[in-house]
């Protein structure tokens, strides 16, 4: 017999930064670690997951009777902790979080803000949507999880965060709000140092405009060390050329060169 759905109290899933479930404004106290692990796994797999994959990824278990019982206990505890019998559904063998729970997370707000920015009719609407998207960002996705199963979702949400920062920085740049452009573009680069090299070039030119050529060249040197130590690569020739021009005192920002 299917359990009836139970209306849930106000829930918010915080995943970007210090991951927590907020229940009526207070952090949820988990009855068991396995229930919390199950929640975050399902959040990272919004299209659902088969029990065998879940058991192997979360707990390194084969899908045998003992492991299946452990899963049932964790599932029961998760539903009880969230106050929803329908918190997790089984659909054709895959277990999925209820859409309401996915919508109640900060990642949902991040992506909703990006979609609104794409549909914005004015620059002001676009900026407002991007700021709403970034208002929920407080760090990496599920930073407490150290497992392969989270990496796909982590990269996906990181890319969204970086896209929001880059888009906002371009709005500032177009308005010649150079310090704000540096701030937002710097956060994009910090979030993902392997962002396209053209963004590193743009940050170098912005830094030269706002903080001087030494700051711009220092960023180049840090980027070059990062590529050497972490990737085993070197900057592109045009990045090297840009660094040399900045060292010589050239101002190469096309926006700054435009008449007011």
TrEMBL record:
What domain of life? Bacteria
The Bacterial transcriptional activator domain covers which part of the protein?
105-247
Q: Which GO terms describe its biological process?
A: phosphorelay signal transduction system; regulation of DNA-templated transcription
The answer to whether the entry has keyword Lipid metabolism is: no
The secretion signal range is none
UniProt cross-references to Pfam families, sorted A to Z: BTAD
One GO molecular-function annotation for this sequence? DNA binding
The protein's matches in InterPro entries, at most eight in alphabetical order, are given as: AfsR-DnrI-RedD_regulator (IPR051677), BTAD (IPR005158), OmpR/PhoB-type_DNA-bd (IPR001867), Sig_transdc_resp-reg_C-effctor (IPR016032), TPR-like_helical_dom_sf (IPR011990), WH-like_DNA-bd_sf (IPR036388)
Which key words tag this protein in UniProt? DNA-binding
Q: Which residues form the OmpR/PhoB-type domain?
A: 25-97
Family stated for the protein in its record: Belongs to the AfsR/DnrI/RedD regulatory family.
Protein name per UniProt? Two-component SAPR family response regulator
| Source organism of the structure | Deinococcus budaensis
């Amino acid at each position: 017999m299917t359990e009836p759905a139970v209306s849930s109290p106000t829930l918010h899933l915080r995943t970007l930064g210090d991951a927590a479930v907020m229940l009526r404004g207070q952090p949820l106290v988990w009855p068991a670690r396995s229930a919390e692990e199950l929640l975050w796994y399902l959040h990272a797999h919004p299209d659902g997951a088969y029990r065998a994959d879940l058991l192997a990824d979360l707990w390194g278990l084969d899908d045998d009777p003992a492991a299946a019982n452990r899963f049932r206990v964790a599932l029961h505890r998760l539903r009880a902790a969230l106050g929803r019998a329908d918190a997790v559904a089984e659909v054709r063998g895959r277990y999925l979080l209820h859409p309401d729970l996915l919508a109640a997370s900060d990642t949902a707000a991040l992506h909703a803000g990006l979609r609104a920015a794409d549909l914005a009719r004015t620059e002001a609407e676009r900026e407002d949507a991007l700021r709403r998207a970034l208002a929920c960002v407080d760090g990496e996705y599920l930073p407490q999880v150290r497992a392969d199963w989270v990496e796909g979702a982590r990269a996906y949400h990181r890319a969204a965060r970086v896209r929001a920062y880059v888009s906002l920085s371009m709005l500032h740049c177009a308005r010649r709000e150079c310090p704000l452009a540096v701030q937002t573009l710097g956060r994009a680069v910090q979030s993902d140092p392997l962002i396209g090299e053209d963004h590193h070039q743009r940050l170098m030119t912005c830094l030269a405009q706002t903080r001087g050529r030494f700051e711009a060249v220092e960023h180049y040197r840090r980027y070059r060390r990062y590529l050497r130590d972490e990737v085993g690569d070197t900057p592109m020739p045009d990045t090297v050329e840009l660094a040399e021009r900045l060292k010589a005192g050239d101002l190469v920002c096309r926006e700054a060169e435009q008449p007011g």
